[in-house]
Design a protein that fits this description.
The chain is α/β, with parallel strands linked by helices and 216 residues long. It is 50% helix and 12% strand. The protein contains 10 helices and 6 strands; from the N terminus they run βαβαβαβαβαβααααα. The chain has a 6-stranded parallel β-sheet with strand order 2-1-3-4-5-6, with helices on both faces.
């Protein structure tokens, strides 16, 4: 059983909303304030979000991963690196089941469509506060069906692994990759080792060939 998160006093709790639409910030800010968050910080881009996390320790991050400077779901891992205690709710217009599955695989605790009602947003935040995962009933059912169909596929790559493989294929060194995607050298080295294991290759040349074959 997942242990509930120990929440700080309501007046001191901070939430971070990462989205490039001011109306989303307004709506989320009001809902989060109603839920007891005394401070709601906004970021309009991936780079701004990571800069905020140098000074802030949010209890929850509401994340739209369709940002102008950040590809897809690749911001989740850097947020996890900088704020390991924060619960991440992906809040997106893309409500495809496969997208929700990848968000959870990357380290998010919840996925919610922007078409959801305000009450469902509040329910999702409450679930994350309790240390639980949250998906809408429709997403949960679709994800369960998808997982049954994909059982045993140990070679599927996460978004982070695809990103690192693509940059290896472009001839970047591990340190250059770490600098570009904003993580430590050790994180990239570990990802490289995982890629070699999953793809059945033994060296960087093998990874470069795989990147070319997969056209990532």
């Amino acid at each position: 059983m997942t242990e509930p998160r120990t929440a700080p006093p309501m007046a001191t709790r901070t939430a971070l909303v990462v989205d490039d639409h001011p109306i989303t910030h307004l709506g989320c800010g009001r809902l989060l304030a109603d839920l007891g968050y005394g401070r709601v910080v906004k970021a309009m881009s991936g780079a701004e979000a990571l800069a905020v996390l140098e000074a802030e320790t949010p209890a929850v991050v509401v994340l739209d991963i369709a940002l102008p400077d950040t590809p897809g779901l690749s911001l989740i891992a850097p947020i996890r690196d900088r704020a390991p205690e924060a619960a991440i709710l992906v809040f997106s217009m893309n409500d495809q089941p496969g997208f929700a599955a990848k968000a959870l695989a990357e380290g998010a605790q919840g996925f919610l469509s922007k078409n959801a009602a305000p009450d469902e947003f509040s329910a999702a935040i409450r679930a994350l506060e309790a240390g639980e995962f949250y998906l809408s009933p429709g997403h949960a059912l679709a994800l369960a069906v998808r997982q049954v169909g994909a059982a045993g596929d140990a070679t599927a790559l996460t978004t982070r692994e695809e990103q690192v493989l693509s940059l290896i294929g472009q001839g970047r060194t591990l340190q250059e990759i770490a600098d570009e995607i904003g993580v430590s050298y050790k994180t990239v080295a570990n990802t490289s080792s995982t890629l070699k294991r999953k793809l059945g290759v033994t060296g960087m040349t093998g990874l470069i060939r795989q990147a070319m074959d997969r056209d990532v």
